[in-house]
Amino acid sequence: MDAAQWDERYRASAGGVWATQPPAVVREITATLPPGTAIDVATGDGRTALWLAERGWDCTGVDFSSAGLALAAARPGGDAVRWTPGDVLEWQPEAQVDLVVSCYLHLPDSAAAVARVAEWVAPGGTLLVLGHDVDNIAAGGHGPSDPAILYTPDLLRGALDDRFRIERCERVVRASGDAELRDGQHAAAIDTLLHAVRVR
């Protein structure tokens, strides 16, 4: 989907597309980190950026959908985040940050996109990527059905060089209570998680 299609989807939604909380594994990992500067890549209607800001992070939410960013800014606490229009393949931050989070960003060359946003992580900082795994199709979980844009642990692991120490890179099962969508679709799903720390 391009920016215009996402704008249409966000404008048609009542209060936003995604669940109000970030995925459980994202909350679990980021809750252990000391707050600093953060970028939420493809923030959509802002759930992860808002959650981070509530916990003291100086957060920028980036997305190419102006309608998604408008929804995010209108949500409670929306004035605590810098909402920035930008395409992940073109936008560049002014400085590296302590945390880069990317949830469910699927592109024809996802490995290149992950490698690009990894450059935004400062030495000592954390990269956290979560998205639909290719095995999610057979499992019947919600999400894209094109295997060419879905993740595997090998794909995400291969996107990083030796400047990163990989803490976790694995398939994770999203439980039925950890909904991705706001409309209450609670089917379990298979995601791929990458949690890495930049060592230099």
From TrEMBL:
This is Methyltransferase domain-containing protein. Residues 39-125 form the Methyltransferase domain. GO terms for molecular function: methyltransferase activity. GO terms for biological process: methylation. Keywords: Methyltransferase, Transferase. InterPro entries: Methyltransf_25, SAM-dependent_MTases_sf. It comes from Microbacterium enclense. Pfam families: Methyltransf_25 (PF13649). It comes from the Bacteria. The lineage of its organism: Bacteria, Bacillati, Actinomycetota, Actinomycetes, Micrococcales.
